[in-house]
Task: structure prediction
Amino acid sequence: MLEAQRQCLNVVKKLMKSKDGWLFEVPVDWKLLQIPDYPDVVTNPMDLGTAKAKLEASKYSSVADFVADIELIWQNAIDYNGEESEMGEVAL
Result:
């Protein structure tokens, strides 16, 4: 694994271990959560577990692509829940 991949993996692991990391660790199960409009609002879902798996499988072509996925996690939370929501505030 390249050094950049190792560093990115360390970042994602730290995010997962952070106080609110569990909120973003797995894909949103919109059926279980009974939020049927989720796929209409969030058309490109992403979560920390998926980003970690992509890192481990060397699926990122650049650090910028990894960063874009991490930013997408926070943006999806804000887009669906709103900046003023508890989830939105955590994502900010």
Remarks:
- The CA atoms of residues 1 and 29 lie 31 Å apart.
- The mean pLDDT is 95.
- Residues 63-81 form the longest helix (19 residues).
- The helical segments are 3-17, 38-41, 48-56, 63-81, 86-91.
